[in-house]
Amino acid sequence: MSCTLVSPSGVRVCLENGRAVILGRGPDTAVTDRRCSRHQVKVVASYADQNAVVTQLGPNPTFLDDVQLGRGQSGKLAHGGTLYLVNQNHPFKLHYSLSSNGAASGSEQKGLKATDKSKGGRTGREKEAQLSLNPKRSIKDFFSTSPMKPSKRQLSPERGHPEVKRQRRDEEASDRQMKEEEEERLAEEKLKQLQELAERSMTEGSNSTQPSSSASSVSVLKGCLKSNWQEIGNLMIYTAAGVKGSDKIAGFDIDGCIITTKSGKVFPTAPDDWKILYPEIKPRLASLLKKGYKLFKCTPALFLQVVFFTNQMGIAKGKLRPEVFKSKVEDILTTLQLAVQVFVAVGPGVYRKPVMGMWNHLCDKANDGVTVDQTQSFYVGDAAGRPENWAPGKKKKDFSCSDRLFALNIGLQFHTPEEYFLGWKNAPYNLPNFDPRRIDCNARLYDPPSASLTSSQTEVIVAVGFPASGKSTFFQTHIIPKGYVYVNRDTLGSWQSCVSACERALKEGRSVAVDNTNPDPESRKRYVDVAKAAGVTCRCFHFSASLEQAKHNNRFREMAPSDIKHAKVNDMVFHSYKKHFVAPSLSEGFSEILQIHFVPKFKHSQSEALFRQFSEG
């Protein structure tokens, strides 16, 4: 598939999937209108949706068909829609088409106009793709304020005269135009410097390394020649040009560690509501790469790589568009001027921190075959389990402990942003009460140990316990094979249906195992009454797994394959059970109450390794 913006005059601009392209006045568009900024719009194509997200950067309005945008505003342009660069002028129609090899057709490739004949005929866009880490940016990405000083003008004694006012307006308009052009010129010079730096670093890195016969060394030398995004299930990966495999990884969270909001809000209010958290971050990260590059020149296996790991559940929930977040990542890296690899968990599962999925993918499939030395690697994040008032002026406690647990799962040294970037002393922290590493697979299954799990006499067994506390697996393993009828609300749909099924089984002389949560005496009384009416005993199996254990089990069974199908359980269900729970007692009519302990059994070592990881902070 290919995506092209086409003007009536035949100018074509090809758009790659998910890659931001900056358009405006210049040879790429053949637009010479001075009202159109050289950085008028940013366009990001989405091949899956066959549309493009357009963000206005310039001061004058852009139109998507008949919808007007303002500076900083974004909108979607559908296939066949028209982008008017400025003031409903300079139309470009968005066109998606299929090609035999899934790429843009030859005629579309030839449509790019920005040919740099002095550089061997390469187009300006091709040169930029090869050398730069990102497309052209506005001057505001490099300077917090304009580098131009405002001009000082003597006020005329006749300033109230209409002719003088008109002349002043003309002069001010001319000043604004010159200021904008100067800003654009400085931005282009800054980008050119970055491009030359990236090209020089890659050239020097390859020239300074001795040839090696090992496959991993060859792969390290190759590195990443062009920035790119990949999507693998719930994982997005951005690899900037110049990134190479490494045996040492410096890992960082993004939100609250590298950036914070400009607005001061907890969550960003707009895609550009971010700023670098501390001034010390940029030079510290640059020194890491510089140090790693020096080591790389001597010994390729000692190259140090900076990697960002971030959870972005908002993408899975539809609150954050992937193309918007991709653009934000590229803007952050442009500001930092770093070649970094970024791993983004966009939904639940094995890739979401603190589970190690992102790290495992990096080590196994995205590190050019180089084995990572965990003793020389580390991770930095702000979700560190710090309590309230953990430092002067830091009254709020950390929202979670997921970053610290991510490092703990992997076996990495961990730092908070304040410890790593600012040199603060280690802050106090709290780990979760439940530690999956301490679960004993050989522990006693139930108490009292003198009790019998099944009976030769007809009976009713009523389960009590959190969702995901092990009830279904226990019954399927130890009770149902003994001939008990299995009654489960997940299957039958209502407690009334469960009671009816229980009554039918008892009339047939068969014992019943009721696999529901049954948190309170009222829910349990239904089955006690049925047992009494049938003249049989009723026992209670209380599954003792805690709330934290049950939630961990729930996340584990979402990630690990299982022969038993489980309904997905959200946090509200867990907390509802906790709210209504009343411990079962013999006074309710039970003949016996057994405490059933959670003792996991694993089919293979991979499942156990996954289970032993902290799954939530």
How is the secondary structure organized here?
Elements: E1 2-6, E2 12-14, E3 20-23, E4 41-46, E5 51-56, E6 62-64, E7 67-69, E8 74-78, E9 82-86, E10 89-97, H1 106-110, H2 124-131, H3 162-207, H4 215-222, E11 228-232, E12 235-239, E13 248-252, E14 259-260, E15 275-276, H5 281-298, E16 304-311, H6 313-316, H7 322-336, E17 341-345, H8 357-365, E18 378-380, H9 402-410, E19 413-415, H10 417-421, E20 446-447, E21 459-464, H11 471-479, E22 485-487, H12 489-492, H13 495-507, E23 512-514, H14 521-534, E24 537-543, H15 547-559, H16 571-580, E25 592-596, H17 605-611
Helix pairs in contact: 13-14
Task: Please give a quick description of this structure.
The protein is of the alpha/beta class and 617 residues long. It is built from 17 helices and 25 strands.
Strand order of the largest sheet: 11-12-17-16-13-18-19
Helix segment count?
Answer: 17
Approximate helicity band: 25-40%
- Separation of the first and last Cα atoms: 42 Å
* Strand percent estimate: 15-25%
Low-confidence stretches: 100-159, 197-222, 292-303
On the 0 to 100 scale, the average pLDDT is: 81
The major β-sheet equals:
7 strands, mixed
Supply Rg: 32 Å
Q: In one word, what is the shape? A: elongated
Counting helices, strands and paired strands, the structural category is alpha/beta
Count of beta strands: 25
Description:
The structure is a single chain. With 617 residues, the chain is α/β, with parallel strands linked by helices. It has 17 helices and 25 strands. The protein has a seven-stranded mixed beta sheet. Strands 2-1-10-9-6-7 form a six-stranded antiparallel beta sheet. The longest helix has 46 residues. It is elongated, with a radius of gyration of 32 Å. About 16% of the residues have low confidence.
